[in-house]
Each structure stands twice: as structure tokens, then as C-alpha cells.
Amino acid sequence: MQRRSVTSVLAAASLLLAAGCSTGGSPAPAGSPAVSSPSAPGSTPASPSPSAPPAKGSVKVVSTLTTDLTSPWGVAALPGGDLLVSSRDTGKIFRVAADGGRKTELGTVPGVAPGGEGGLLGIAVAPSFGRDHQVYAYFTTESDNRIARMNYDAKKQPGRQLGAPDTVLKGIPSGQIHNGGRIAFGPDKMLYAGTGETGDTGLAQDRKSLGGKILRMTPDGEPVHGNPDADSVVYTYGHRNVQGLAWDAGGRLWAAEFGQNTWDELNLIEPGRNYGWPEVEGKGRGDARFVDPVAQWGTAEASPSGIAYARGSVWMAGLRGERLWRIPLGGRQASAAPQAFLQGEYGRLRTVVPTGDGGLWLVTSNTDGRGDPKNGDDRILRLDVR
Fold first, then answer.
1. What digits encode the pLDDT tens for the residues 72-83?
2. Three-point CA angle 245, 269, 206, nearest 5°
3. In sequence order, which residues have a C-beta less than 8 Å from that of residue 140 and are 6 or more positions away?
4. CA angle, 49 as apex, 265 and 290 as ends, to 5°?
5. If DSSP codes are grouped into helix, strand and coil, which group holds residue 230?
6. So what's the pLDDT on residue 93?
7. Distance CA 235, CA 364 (A)
8. Least confident piece of the model among 42-56, 162-176, 350-364
9. 187 near 21, Cβ under 8 Å?
10. Half-sphere exposure for 149 (CA within 13 Å, toward CB)
């Protein structure tokens, strides 16, 4: 199904106030992570947040759930806790048992054209899965990136258990780089997608393009009441490459974004706002047109892909940075300096997902063509976090 084209006219962004913060309680060296304190005049306040988490956290690797995954990218939890895992370069989806890590191949998504940073990317389980057994995937084809849904009913479809894909949105620009790819259902049960500008930087500010955006749509791929433009699935613009989406306890949406050569970003996402790329990378130096990031990192320290919310903090998986970042939150801002864990211990880190009991699943990404695979890569780790 081809959906309507994007013709959005988005509101200009409000200025966010910036305040730097150093790591580890000591003076911050040049290029160290920085946090900002945003305000959003005229915005609707989110639900009250719990008190801020401790400034310092901890991470313990409890176990390895499974090993020998090939180019894992998207991960989504099924009711009951088992995981669905997408393989970027093979186009396959696997089910991984939360108890014991047994892998079952469910099938290959038709039409996936892997290459560069494209292929089978994000995956999401519909909030209505108990009724309709719908699983969503974001993937690259020969002509575009698109989102499709498939029926997955293990009881009725033994063996290769994925139904034929039903495209809900197509026409997202694709390329060898910057395909975005993260999809997730929000607390409002709408489907969100982070896209990239494919290296064509002008797409990020082009409000008629789906590239370099965060999209919000119904489960059928249609625009949603409350979007900046009633006829558009575009929610925010001015993004370079969004691969992390997560909501905090107050229902606020956070997104991780790759910078170019200077700053990676964690952004608080609000509808209609302009996040600056390519005019600004990182903080906007007081330019009222653009939203400043809540936290930023040098690209060698992060290159962030997936994020998750747990224990009052956003947890961010770093690819080039080969570390897991913890960003404790106090409402709309970081309540303390970002803190890094597991630096260099497991290589590139792609995706992080809540376990449902306060812990995290962490997925490595050493078989993606840019890593240095070790015996057993790639793997899913079970983390205890505080």
C-alpha cells in the first residue's frame, strides 16, 4: 500500500538553554560529554517524573544469552519475554528464548537489499500483538527504505513462521549510509521511526522529504492527530541519522543521533521542532531556530545507535565508542554527567532493550563489516544496571 506523500509545514524550533557538565565530578577535558538544561516555552508538560536517579550508576554483565549472531540490528520483546532479532545483512528474523537463548529462524523478509548501512534494520512488536500477531520491520529495498508488517503466530504457522509483508509506509530515502532504521511503538500506541538523510544533507531540512526525520504514524502508516501537519507523518526534522528511540517514565520521547565529525547527540523530542542538521552539529550557539541536544559526545566516544530507558536513566549503545553510556534524567534534562561502562570490553554496541524487570539486554555489532569479530560474536548480554 502506498501512503500519501509528505507536505508538512512545521513550526520553528524554540531555543533550549545550554549548561555544560563534566564527567566523574572532575573538570571536563576538551571534547568530553556535555549536558544541557532544556526548556520548552508553550509546550505541554509531561507527567510528573520520579525523583532523579543517583549521579553515579553501575553495570554488571550477568550472563550471555546467545552467541554467533550475524549482523544483529533490531531487537523487540514478545509477550512473555522472548526476543525477536533482525539480521541486517541476511534479511532474516530470529526468535531468541529469554530462558536459555535458543535461536529459531522465523524466515527472511522479502525485498530486503542489504548494502553499506542498509538492510533489515529495526523491528517492533505491535501493542495489539496478543490479538493480531503483528510484527513490524524497517528495511532497505533496491529503491527506498520502508516499513512493513507481518503476521507471526507461532501456534498457527510452525516452521517458517512469518507471514507475507504488508507495506505500511514507503518512500523513505535510502543510500549506502545514514538509513536510520529504528522503529518503536510509543505510549500512545502510535508507530515512530527514526530516518537518516542518506548523506544528502539537504534532505534533513526539506520538510517534504521523509529523510532526516522522526516520523509518527498510526499502525496502518497514516498521519496522526497531533502531528505538526495533519497530512504528514513527519514529527520532527533536521536530523542526520536517528537510530535510537525511547520514552521515559513521564512519557517523553528521547532520540540518539549520529554527528558527523564533532558531536553525537541525545535529544528530547517534541513535535514540529528543528534539530539543526546540517546547519548545526551539537549545540546551536544560541540560534533560536534550532533545538540544542540535552547531552553531546565527541564522535569517537559514542556514535550512538540504540537507546533504552531503565532505572531513571537513558542507556545508549555506542558503536565507534564501544561503550554503554548512562545518562541520568531529572525531568526534561540530564540530572548528572553521562557515565560510560564496558569501554572496549565487547566491541561495537548496537542495541539496548529493557528486560522488563529493570535490567537490560545489550547487543554487540562486531560482524557489521566495521568491527573486529571475536569468537562467539555477535552476542546478546544480560545486564544488571543501577
1. 999 999 999 999
2. 100
3. 112, 113, 114, 115, 118, 119, 120, 121, 174, 179
4. 30
5. coil
6. 97
7. 30
8. 42-56
9. no
10. 22
Residue located via cell numbers 522479502? 110
Kindly give, in sequence order, each residue whose CB lies less than 8 Å from that of residue 169, ignoring residues fewer than 6 positions away. Answer: 3, 146, 147, 193, 215, 217, 221, 233
Burial category of 156 from C-beta neighbours within 10 Å (exposed 0-12, middle 13-18, buried 19 and up): exposed
Torsion, Cα of 327, 64, 99, 251 (10° steps): 10
Strand partners, 307: 316
Nearest to 252 by CA among 184, 186, 338: 186
pTM tops 0.85: yes
Side chain identity, residue 156: K
pLDDT at 51: 78
DSSP for 16-83, written as a single string = -------STTSPPPTT--EE-----TTPPPPPPPPPPPPSS--EEEEEEEE---SSEEEEEEPTTS-E
- Nearest-angstrom CA–CA distance, 302 and 258: 8
- CA dihedral (379, 246, 225, 129) in degrees, to 10, reads 40
The CA-CA-CA angle for residues 183, 189, 195, to 5°, reads: 25
**Which residue, chain included where needed, has cell 554483565?**
61
- Cross-strand bridge partners of residue 94: 85, 105
Give the pLDDT band (50/70/90) at residue 39: very low
Q: What is the C-alpha to C-alpha distance for residues 173 and 175, in angstroms, rounded to an integer?
A: 7
Q: Which three cell numbers stand for residue 24?
A: 566523574
* DSSP code of residue 241: B
- The total number of residues written for the chain in this structure: 386
Q: How far apart are the first and last CA of the chain?
A: 44
C-alpha 162 chain-centroid distance: 24
pLDDT band at 153 (very low <50, low <70, confident <90, very high): confident
* CA 228 from centre of chain: 21
* Cα 117 off chain centre by: 15
CA distance linking residue 129 with residue 111, whole number of Å: 24
Closest C-alpha among 341, 384, 343, 340 to residue 361: 384
